[in-house]
Every structure is written in C-alpha cells, then in structure tokens.
Write a structure and sequence with these properties.
The protein is mainly β and 143 residues long. It has a single domain, classed as Nucleic acid-binding proteins (OB fold (Dihydrolipoamide Acetyltransferase, E2P), Beta Barrel), CATH 2.40.50. It is built from two helices and seven strands. The protein has a five-stranded mixed beta barrel. A hairpin with a 5-residue loop joins strand 3 and strand 4.
Length: 143
C-alpha cells in the first residue's frame, strides 16, 4: 500500500499574497491563512485557537489567482504538506512547514471577504506545473 499526503483547509488570508519568480521564470505565490477552531477548555469556558498556515502555489495556478487573493478573503485550499529547513542569518537551522496548493477556491458571499462569483483555480497537471522547463526539481525551488 502507498502513502497519502493531503491537506484540506478553509481559512482567511492574513495579508495580500506575494508573487515572485525563479530565475527560470517559474511563478511562486506565497501567502498565509488562519484557521480557527472553537472548543470548551477544562473549566468549560468557550475557547478559540487560531493556527496560521503557510501556503505556496507554483506555476500558472499561482499567476492566475494572485490578483483575486487579498487580505481577509476566505479560501478553500487543497494540497500537500511539505517540510523544509534553512539556516538563518545567525547560522541556526530553522524548519518550515508549507501547504503546496493544487486547488484553491475563493469562498463567501459578496461583502464577506469572498466576492469571487465562484472563482476557482486548480492544477491540471501537477508535474508540468512544478517543472515546466524540465530543469528545476521541487527540492531546488528557493523559498
């Protein structure tokens, strides 16, 4: 039996996304969303916990949806979890977890942060979007 790496999230953008390009011209769209869960703590008081998720979108899907995403918009994200590490300015190894999105749907009615008229972007061929020129591997993408 194989394995599965899939993430499904519904949350709101914390700020406008950042669109940048690799030297080879691959688009990389980055943004974060907040998800909030509500529960009763040990004393029975209603409590909420907000978790921030880093979202990365590669290729044409990122280019096509970049102008529709703004702070506060509610989105549905489907993708996979990717962990990476890097050395900070002091040489300390840091770890980062991203959701690499393959499907993004803007949610909500007009005036509720999702005035999208049902706009959705979905990756049709994951491998070609990640490596359109056939030169750069996923692990070589700088972020």
């Amino acid at each position: 039996m194989g394995s599965l790496n899939k993430a499904l999230l519904i949350g709101n953008l914390g700020k406008d996304p950042e669109l940048r390009y690799t030297p080879d011209g691959l688009a990389i769209l980055s943004f974060s969303i907040a998800t909030t869960e509500y529960f009763n703590d040990k004393s029975g008081s209603k409590t909420e916990r907000t978790t921030w998720h880093n979202i990365t979108v590669f290729g044409k899907i990122g280019q096509s949806i970049a102008n529709y995403l703004t702070k506060g918009k509610q989105v549905f994200i489907e993708g996979k979890i990717r962990n990476s590490s890097y050395d900070d300015k002091e040489g300390i190894k840091r770890y980062k977890t991203d959701i690499v999105a393959s499907n993004i749907v803007l949610l909500g009615a007009k005036g509720s942060g999702g005035d999208n008229n049902g706009y959705a972007a979905q990756r049709k061929n994951t491998e070609n979007d990640y490596n359109p020129a056939g030169k750069q591997e996923d692990d070589d993408i700088p972020f």
